[in-house]
Design brief:
- 2 copies of one chain form a homodimer.
- Chain A has 5 helices and 6 strands, in the order αβααββββαβα.
- Chain A is of the alpha+beta class and 132 residues long.
- In chain A, the strands form 2 sheets. The first copy, chain A, has a 3-stranded antiparallel sheet with strand order 1-3-2.
- The radius of gyration of chain A is 17 Å and the shape is globular.
- In chain A, 28% of the residues are buried.
- Strand 6 of chain A pairs antiparallel with strand 6 of chain B.
- The structure holds zinc ion (ZN) (4 copies).
- Chain A binds a DNA duplex (30 and 30 nucleotides) through helix 1 and helix 3.
Chain lengths: 132, 132
DNA sequence: ACGCTTGTTGAGAACGGTTGTCAAAGATCG
DNA sequence: CGATCTTTGACAACCGTTCTCAACAAGCGT
């Protein structure tokens, strides 16, 4: 039952800490492999899953359905503005949106309400790169 | 180049019109098969894809990643409150949210902004059913 | 330091939704 | 009706993710 500290687990956490952006499991796997700190793909998935369960990482789905992971600065509920090209991310607070979402849902007689609110765009860097 | 009107295409559209809720491609395929109006699964996917491209149906992703389709009453931009058990749906307007989303993204220097705003819950019917 | 126990790893198979393949079927038009 | 050219559908391929299970190693008691 006790979670053991393994080389692989720490490697995944470290990689996430160094990367400020949302990354897919496969990207992380490749990053680790590239720096010699090789970890099995299944293990990367398991580590990310465990971190997500512990609310240590945020997960969101790219437009193509792939899951993206990120170790956010704040642990409290928040949303993201994400560059769809490079994964660059800004954390977003939306107090008014939070209130709006729960009010609307309750007014329709719905329970166990959750909301998905994510903003996608092209960051300044990627725009500059694509212009050249 | 001209889109031809085929039995399969009309069958998919009719099934969508009769169903008020978000449904997966496989659910629709099964529904059609059950009523004798048999259509190949690949064809169901292609028809839904074409309808989505023409903005005739809305598409959203369930929490498990499956795509769900619905022919909404209004063609204009809107969002949804969806029962995660039965797909029952309420269309939602959020003028304040729209303004909030574009303002926040622009303030961070992002371009080509899109937003994903969906509300998930348990509808009154499903709650009543689960209590019994 | 040394086993023991038990959680963890990793290569590959399996899975599930979705898309591609391509010969046969059929919608449209002259 | 016949020619044309899109559409269909059974099936394979794809791709991200999860499962399997024997080998491995963390933590612990000695
Ligand atoms: Zn970018
Ligand atoms: Zn929120
Ligand atoms: Zn329901
Ligand atoms: Zn909107």
């Amino acid at each position: 039952m006790a979670a053991r500290m393994t080389r692989q687990r720490t490697a995944v956490v470290e990689a996430l800490d160094e990367l400020a952006d949302f990354r897919s499991a496969q990207q992380l796997h490749e990053t680790l492999r590239a720096r010699g700190e090789s970890v099995g793909l299944a293990t990367v998935y398991r580590a990310l899953q465990a971190l997500a369960d512990a609310s240590e990482v945020d997960v969101l789905r790219a437009e193509d359905g792939e899951s993206l992971y990120r170790r956010c600065a704040r642990r409290e509920h928040h949303h993201h503005l994400v560059c769809r090209h490079c994964g660059s991310t800004v954390e977003i607070d939306g107090p008014t949106v939070e209130a709006w979402a729960s009010k609307v849902a309750a007014a329709q007689g719905f329970d166990d309400i959750e909301h998905t609110i994510e903003l996608w765009g092209t960051c300044a860097d990627c725009r500059a790169a694509s212009v050249s």
